[in-house]
Design goal:
This protein is an all-alpha fold. Helix content is about 70%, strand content about 0%. Among the domains are: about 1-90 and about 120-255, Leucine-rich Repeat Variant; about 435-560, Arf Nucleotide-binding Site Opener, domain 2 (Orthogonal Bundle); about 580-680 and about 745-760, no CATH class; about 775-885, no CATH class; about 980-1000 and about 1020-1215, no CATH class. It has a two-stranded antiparallel ribbon with strand order 1-2. A hairpin with a 5-residue loop joins strand 1 (about 135-140) and strand 2 (about 145-150). Helix 3 runs parallel beside helix 6, helix 46 (about 950-965) runs antiparallel to helix 47 and helix 53 packs antiparallel against helix 54 (about 1165-1180). InterPro entries: ARM-type_fold, Mon2/Sec7/BIG1-like_HUS, Sec7_C_sf, Sec7_dom, Sec7_dom_sf.
Length: about 1200
């Protein structure tokens, strides 16, 4: 068998035509798979099996440019081979005991009985080969014409399919073979995690499937690996908002794990209750909740997917609890069991030590205790970051460390607690105190360096804290590391720990040399080796070892952010104490270079650098008067250089600035306060409103070209040249000689700062920088950290801050949905500030927010979310203090009118319409803006009526009623509004017909799709009912208006109400009960209210004119009642409620007929009511509604009521009847 394999795989094919070659290779594949399927294949040697797999893969690779059939056949054969080989893995003999024995027995030098056939060695080699396929790269050319290496996704997917098959068929047998298991733990997981976070959705889906298979069979061996996969892939990708498909795949990966019955409990116990692990279960739940929470718009696929996962998670938890109850005696448990109470820590228990699961009950108590310890450790970390002493005292108080302190407890706290300030850890560990030295030694013992190279071990050690600036502290820490590494080294390379100590320093120096841009001449490999001669007890270290270290450090720098801190302090001190121009120039040059380094992931260092520069500007010195600050700025070079440096950093490194934006904003506000900030320095202040609304970009008013907005490392010399030019012209003597005043000198500096560009070009900033900049501006506008001497100063500062906020928002309108939710949260937070003054903040903020709103509407976005967000902020702003509207109503009216007039077609959200119409209604109450607001509403209801929707109609009616109800409003315009309100019934009719059509369509399609049509039919019916609700809303507005003081308005409201009912008679599809309901709730109350008002006037003195006016309106209302009654008579007569309704009509006729007007004379309604009754009763008789019936007392009741209301009509209406 081995010979056959050797002969087939080593044969050479003669080149012929492609078809013949493909046929031969397919035949070879057929023979090879036939050999592996034969029972005698078990006698094949490991080498032969590996050769077969390798040959098949070569065929797959060569078929890439050939026929598709050959490639498919090759891949299928490869898949079959993997299945055959790894299906035998459970049957392979496990040689050796334990990990050590397994490693030895499976080494390449093992002596194996060849007669037994292939075994674990070929499985290891093949699995290693499959893992290596995940790292296959292909060379592609980018848009710039250069070649780049990227992972070959097609090969990755093929490899993942094969790996999945191998794991599924091997099952838990992999855990019995240590070397194969370590390959899964190390090689495989390394590739899966690396490519999982930066791959396509398809690859991530395959990787998640592979990890899930590993979890099924090998979960007890891959605890740390699973934590890493969740942390760096699934949770990280779901938090990233840039690629929706990738998010959905990652979320599905999380949900697949949640579907596993035991995952919830295992994740909680193994991770959430372990102080040294990430809370995987808790974070998974938070991710699902965060993505589930719906926005105001339609649900997205991601939200639905997250909701399903959340439901699965909840059911899984509940099922586990139910299962626990079923396992025991429920009755006995209910009687005797005590519900778990919160765990309290009463004694010191080492939190980093796990307890074996010997006794279940004590183990559960131990797990709960560790969870409580983990919570307390998180709180302690927060205290420690703010105050080291308070943090350590909290640890003692909660028995997390012993008293006196156990060094290992403190070391474990520093080593394993997430969120600790690494700078503070480094300072503590470097302290020479005896306890600190003991903690340092224990800290190094938390690391396992066995099997690591020196550079890898040193990287791991330095990543756990930040090296302090003092050389003595660094010395102690490197010495402790060297001792620990020497104890655990697995080879005999180092003669003593001193050798390790010296070489560590040499590596740190090499790292600085290779990766510091200030070092022009870099150390070569030969120089590095020469520098480390005879350090190993007088002998040389192996050259190959030193060469490997050199290449590692040169290609991959240490994560050392240590030198920037001391560097900033040293250079800043030099800058502070020097007066020499050249030295100052060199200091600025050095600090800018630090910024160039810090922009690569060292944001806190960049923030520290900005804080250092801000100190030298003297602008933020709280102990100097404004006059002293102004004098220093005008006569000292350092403050002007520092100011220029601050804003240069903001322009060139803004994408890496975080907390430093607060200092930049404070400096900017102080410059304005000192009147050192001319209007021309900030373009957006002089930009007209129209240009700002249309997103016009600012022209360049700066001395320096703006093409280097994003800093280019190659332009460092030009940046330094700017400071040289500044220094060359900045001496007082030369300025005076050039005839420059102090103001002109300051103006020159400010222009070089390019302040306007920071905000107008903020579109190039990353998301996190925009968020930090916005937070600083909003908090400054709210007065945080500001002191104002006068109200005018406060008002101007707040306006300036809002101008900056709006400039940022307009420049980033394309990603508004990303940053504005956080801005909105900041607006909510400022209301809780102790000294918050809402008057200038809201007064200056609302107009700016409307500018952003108009820009959003003008852009006609497809997504409704930006509109929803901006109106949410506008609403919360004017609700902070509603009286604010009285101070800025003119601006609000102008913006709202513009939105209604020009952009009503673009309003998509209910909140947008509600906010606009509510503010329009409020502004219409002011005499100065009343006419403009009314004209805007009239234009909306006439010219732009087609833009109204069912959701906005109700707000429009409310606004219209608020205008009509105003006493001092124009009668002519109010009558126009009432007419437009009446005409709006045509819109209601249109909406009703649309909803009715949808109902009929859904009913027609119900037979073909019962479930979906049922849902749609329900929605359509809901639409019909909503239209009826809107009609009632309109009618109610008319009813309220009938009580207006002015007779013209009252009478028109009554006639409008009548017209509305007449127009909606047939076209709104009211049911008999619906018709009665509308009349009963609108027309009857109208007559009752007018009658009550009539009687009220009749009791007043000198109110005859008002009384007669109200009497005339009531007369019109009674005629309206008759008209509506007759129009709806046929429709409502069949209703069971008609008898009661008719009695209601007669009752109101009676009350109006017998109204006592007192001293004002006769009731003129007595002339109208009999005519109305006669018409109604005659019509009812003609339609045979009012006839004598044995089972109907309607005729008899009417007869009795007529005798009571108008006895004179009895003989006319009932001529043949007697009492």
């Amino acid at each position: 068998m081995n010979s056959i394999v050797s002969g087939i795989t080593s044969c050479r094919l003669e080149k012929t035509d492609l078809v013949s070659e493909d046929a031969v290779m397919m035949r070879i594949l057929q023979v090879l798979i036939g050999i592996m399927k034969h029972p005698a294949s078990e006698l094949l040697e490991d080498q032969a099996v590996c050769t077969i797999v390798n040959t098949c893969f070569q065929v797959v690779q060569q078929s890439a440019g050939r026929g598709d059939l050959l490639q498919r056949n090759g891949r299928y054969t490869m898949h079959e081979l993997i299945q055959i080989i790894f299906s035998r893995l459970p049957d392979f003999e496990v040689r050796g005991g334990g990990d050590d024995g397994g490693e030895d027995s499976e080494s390449d030098t093992d002596e194996i009985d060849m007669s037994s056939g292939y075994g674990i060695r070929c499985c290891i080699d093949i699995f290693h080969f499959l893992c290596s396929l995940l790292n296959v790269v292909e060379v592609v050319e980018n848009s710039e014409g250069t070649s780049v290496h990227t992972a070959d996704e097609d090969v990755q997917i093929f490899a993942l399919v094969l790996i999945n098959s191998a794991i599924e068929l091997s099952g838990d047998a992999i855990g019995q073979h240590p070397k194969l298991l370590r390959m899964v733990q190390d090689d495989l997981f390394h590739h899966l995690i690396h490519y999982g976070a930066s791959s396509s959705p398809l690859v991530l889906s395959m990787i998640s499937s592979c990890i899930l298979n590993i979890y099924h069979f090998l979960r007890k061996f891959v605890r740390l690996q699973l934590e890493a996969f969740f942390s760096f892939v699934l949770l990280k990708v779901t938090a990233f908002t840039g690629f929706l498909q990738l998010q959905e795949v990652a979320l599905e990966g999380l949900i697949n794990f949640c579907r596993q019955p035991a995952f919830i409990v295992e994740a909680y116990v193994n991770y959430d209750c372990d102080p040294m692990c990430r809370s995987i279960f808790e974070e998974t739940g938070k991710v699902l909740c965060r993505h589930t929470f719906p926005s105001s718009g339609p649900l997205t696929s991601l939200q639905i997917q997250a909701f399903e996962g959340l439901v699965i998670l909840i059911h899984n938890i509940a099922d586990n609890m139910d299962r626990d109850e079923e396992d025991g005696d429920v009755q006995e448990e209910e009687e005797n069991a005590v519900k778990p109470s919160p765990v309290e820590i009463h004694e010191y228990i080492p939190f980093w030590i796990e307890k074996p699961k010997d006794d279940f009950e004590t183990w559960v108590d131990h797990i709960r205790m560790r969870k409580a310890q983990k919570r307390k450790l998180a709180i302690a970390a927060n205290h420690f970051n703010r105050d080291e002493k308070k943090g350590l005292e909290y640890l003692k108080y909660n028995h997390l460390v012993s008293d006196p302190p156990d060094p290992m407890a403190l070391a474990s706290f520093f080593r394993f607690t997430p969120g600790l300030d690494k700078t503070m850890i480094g300072d503590y560990l470097g302290d020479p105190d005896e306890l600190h030295l003991s903690v340092l030694k224990s800290f190094t013992h938390t690391f396992e360096f066995t099997g690591m190279n020196l550079d890898t071990a040193l990287r791991t050690f330095l990543e756990s804290f930040r090296l302090p600036g003092e050389s003595q502290k660094i010395e102690r820490m490197i010495e402790a590391f060297s001792e620990r590494f020497y104890e655990q080294q697995s080879s005999e390379i180092f003669a003593s720990k001193d050798t390790v100590h010296i070489l560590c320093y040499s590596l740190i120096m090499l790292n600085t040399d290779q990766h510091n841009p200030q070092v022009k001449k870099k150390m070569t490999e030969d120089e590095f080796i020469r520098n480390n001669r005879a350090i190993n007890a007088g002998k040389d270290l192996p050259r190959e070892y030193l060469s490997e270290l050199f290449q590692s450090i040169s290609s991959n720098a240490f994560a050392l952010s240590t030198h920037s801190g001391p560097s900033i302090a040293a250079v800043s001190a030099f800058f502070e104490h020097s007066d020499d121009d050249e030295v100052l120039h060199e200091c600025v040059d050095a600090l800018i270079s630090i910024a160039r380094v810090a922009q690569y992931g060292l944001e806190d260092i960049l923030d520290e650098l900005i804080a250092s520069f801000c100190k030298f500007t003297t602008l933020l010195n709280p102990y100097t008067t404004p006059e002293e600050t102004l004098f220093a700025f005008s006569h000292d070079m350092k403050p002007r250089m520092a100011t220029l440096a601050v804003f240069t950093l903001a322009n060139n490194f803004g994408d890496s600035i975080r907390g430093g934006w607060r200092n930049i904003v404070d400096c900017l506000l102080k410059l304005r306060k000192l009147q050192l900030l001319p209007q021309s320095a900030i373009e957006f202040e002089t930009t007209d409103e129209e240009n700002l609304n249309n997103g016009g970009s600012e022209p360049d008013l700066n001395v320096v070209s703006t093409q280097d907005a994003k800093f280019n490392r190659k332009q460092g010399s030009s940046l330094m040249g700017r400071f040289s030019h500044f220094l060359a012209l900045d001496s007082v003597e030369e300025s005076v000689a050039l005839g420059m005043s102090e103001f002109e000198q300051n103006l020159k500096v400010i222009k070089q700062c390019r302040i306007g560009q920071i905000f107008s070009k903020s579109s190039v900033l990353p998301d996190v920088a925009v968020l930090n900049l916005g937070r600083s501006l909003i908090y400054a506008a709210a007065g945080k950290g500001q002191k104002f001497s006068t109200a005018i100063e406060e008002e101007e500062t707040v306006k300036f801050c809002w101008d900056l906020i709006i400039a940022v928002a307009l420049s980033n309108i394309h990603r508004f949905s990303m940053f504005w939710p956080s801005y909105h949260e900041y607006l909510l937070n400022v209301a809780n500030f102790p000294l918050f003054s809402p008057v200038p903040f809201v007064e200056k903020g609302i107009p700016g927010l409307f500018k952003v709103c108009i820009k959003i509407l003008a852009s006609q976005p497809q997504d409704y979310l930006p509109e929803e967000l901006i109106f949410r902020s506008i609403t919360i702003m004017w609700k902070i203090d509603k009286e604010i509207i009285d101070t800025c109503y003119d601006q609000i009216t102008e913006f709202v009118s513009k939105i209604i007039t020009e952009y009503s077609a673009n309003l998509q959200t209910q909140l947008g319409w509600k906010s606009v119409l509510q503010l329009l209604s409020l502004c219409g109450r002011h005499p100065e803006t009343k006419d403009q607001a009314v004209d805007a509403l009239i234009g909306l209801m006439s010219i732009n009526a087609a833009h109204l929707t069912q959701s906005s109609y109700a707000y429009c009616i409310d606004c219209a009623f608020s205008f009509v109800a105003l006493r001092n409003s124009s009668v002519e315009k109010n009558l126009k509004i009432l007419d437009l309100m009446t005409d709006s019934v045509t819109m209601l009719v249109k909406w009703y017909k649309t909803a009715s059509t949808e109902t009929v369509t859904n009913s027609y399609s119900m037979a073909s799709n019962a479930s979906s049509s049922s849902s749609a039919d329900e929605n359509a019916l809901r639409g019909v009912n909503f239209v009826h609700h809107l009609f009632l809303k309109l009618s109610e507005a008319f009813r309220k208006t009938t009580l207006a003081r002015r007779e013209e308005i009252r009478n028109r409201a009554v006639t409008s109400l009548e017209k509305s009912f007449i127009m909606g008679h047939e076209d709104l599809g009211f049911t008999p009960s619906g018709c009665i309901y509308c009349i009963d709730h609108v027309i009857f109350p109208t007559i009752d209210d007018l009658h009550e008002k009539l009687l009220d006037y009749s009791r007043r003195e000198n109110a005859e004119r008002e009384m007669r006016s109200m009497e005339g309106t009531l007369k019109i209302a009674m005629k309206m009642l008759q008209s509506v009654f007759l129009r709806y008579l046929k429709q409502i007569v069949g209703s069971a409620e008609f008898r009661t309704f008719w009695l209601g009509v007669l009752r109101r006729m009676d009350t109006c007929m017998k109204a006592d007007l007192g001293e004002y004379g006769d009731n003129k309604l007595q002339e109208v009511v009999p005519e109305l009754l006669t018409t109604m009763i005659c019509t009812m008789k003609e339609q045979e509604i009012l006839v004598q019936k044995e089972d109907d007392d309607l005729w008899e009741i009417t007869y009795i009521q007529i005798q009571w209301i108008a006895p004179a009509l009895k003989d006319e209406l009932f001529p043949d009847e007697e009492i």
